[in-house]
TrEMBL record:
InterPro entries, A to Z: Cyt_P450, Cyt_P450_B, Cyt_P450_sf
Protein name per its UniProtKB record: Unannotated protein
Entry coiled-coil feature ranges: none
SUPFAM superfamilies linked to this entry: Cytochrome P450 (SSF48264)
Family from the record: Belongs to the cytochrome P450 family.
Organism in which the protein naturally occurs: freshwater metagenome
């Protein structure tokens, strides 16, 4: 047994650690610069055991746990799907074993790098449309003017949902993830109601599509007609895929783009370097995904049988918490982890998770973020945080710069 396991009651944890584990919206954690908290946890308590389970914070441990056969994501007792507004496991995130392999066999080929690359012209054209809307003013609140509508519009287009639904779906997503509940249970209850309303709307759109019998060049059409291993997806399966994709597609890229754009706005030398040398931007985005880690954790998973991983004993029924963000600043995994090196070569970060449940849309996210920032750089010669204003951050399972007032000089 290791000597770096800290045993503590949940009520005795620091407020910062509790906020992370239960996804407390805008709790005690320093949302703008959480890296100092992760550094402290790595030094003092890299493995934490409390009444219900174990939290892992080191890269080596997290990668091992994420790949272990006795760690599953679909146990309803963890509340993972409910925390996303669903009483049913969402596909493929909350599915394990052979059935998970079955779904990934369907979904993975749809999100390969070459296929996502084909979307780049559309992403850039869409970015230009939104830039046109604010560039003449010389300033904009970029979270609402750019970071939210750009990836959300791209998602609606490739998924096959009408753009007229976007405001409704964003509202439901926010009410599921960021509602005003004061406890985990209350937030879950509110999210469940909002999730039911969102699912009813998605089912309505699915049934409309099914009733026409017409084919479309989008993901929804693929889900309706795709067959793998002799199995065609039924309506409930498609809804559980649509639910997950809607929550993720309308939130994670928005949050990531906002954090990265905020970082550039605060670092003029590196910003101008990217504007002058756009070929460096893909590596820079990888480094900022590592350092910012907008999706800080892999959620709560469950141990199916007693086991030991990297010297940490786990009991059947334990809840397991994995922190991608702390792993991404682990000095055992990265040289000078708190130095943002935009040309870092060895950058095996896990900002898109690790193991069987690695982010399905990671290749799309990369292309969207790089294309969005590059298009902005083509249209402005410089930008900065608007004088007298401040960037605000929020945390509701995902970190975002949700108030991003920037000023800029148009080319």
């Amino acid at each position: 047994m290791r000597n770096d396991i800290v045993e503590i009651k949940f009520e005795d944890m620091s407020r910062e650690l509790r906020s992370m584990i239960v996804y407390e919206s805008n709790g005690a954690m320093d949302v703008e610069t959480p890296q100092a908290l992760f550094d402290e946890i790595l030094r003092t308590s890299p493995v934490v055991r409390w009444e219900m389970g174990v939290g892992f914070f080191k890269m080596e441990d997290i990668v091992a746990v994420a790949r272990h056969r006795n760690i599953v994501s679909c146990d309803p007792n963890t509340g993972e799907a409910m925390g996303m507004g669903s009483a049913e496991p969402l596909i493929p995130l909350h599915i394990d074993g052979d059935i998970h392999k079955h779904y990934r066999k369907l979904l993975d080929p749809l999100f390969t790098p070459p296929k996502m690359k084909l979307l780049e012209p559309t992403i850039r054209a869409t970015a230009d449309q939104f830039i046109d809307g604010f560039i003449g003013a010389g300033q904009a609140e970029m979270y609402s003017a750019f970071c939210t509508p750009l990836p959300s519009t791209v998602f609606m287009q490739i998924f096959g949902l009408p753009l007229e639904d976007l405001d409704f779906l964003i509202e439901k997503k926010n009410r599921i993830l960021k509602n005003e509940g004061t406890s985990f249970e209350e937030r879950e209850a509110i999210g469940r109601v909002e999730g039911l309303e969102m699912r009813a709307h998605l089912r309505k759109r699915l049934q409309e599509r099914l009733s026409t019998g017409l084919r479309h060049d989008d993901l929804l059409d693929t889900f309706i007609h795709f067959e793998v291993d002799g199995h065609q997806l039924n309506e409930d399966e498609i809804i559980n895929i649509m639910h997950l994709f809607t929550i993720a597609g309308l939130d994670t890229v928005t949050s990531s783009l906002s954090c990265i754009l905020a970082w550039f706005a605060k670092h003029p030398e590196e910003r101008r370097r990217m504007i002058d040398h756009p070929e460096l931007l893909p590596a820079a985005v990888e480094e900022l995904m590592r350092y910012e880690s907008p999706v800080p954790s892999g959620g709560h998973r469950t141990v199916t049988d007693d086991c030991e991983i990297n010297g940490v004993p786990l009991r059947k029924g334990d809840v397991v918490y994995l922190c991608w963000a702390s792993a991404n600043v682990d000095p055992a995994a990265f040289e000078s982890p708190h130095t943002v090196d935009l040309t870092r070569e060895q950058n095996r970060h896990i900002a898109f998770a690790s193991g069987l449940h690695r982010c399905l849309g990671s290749h799309l996210a990369r292309i969207e973020i790089v294309a969005a920032i590059d298009q902005l750089h083509r249209r402005v010669s410089d930008y900065w945080v608007t004088p007298g204003a401040e960037v605000d951050y929020e945390f509701a399972g995902v970190r975002a710069a949700n108030h991003l007032p920037l000023s800029f000089t148009a080319r």
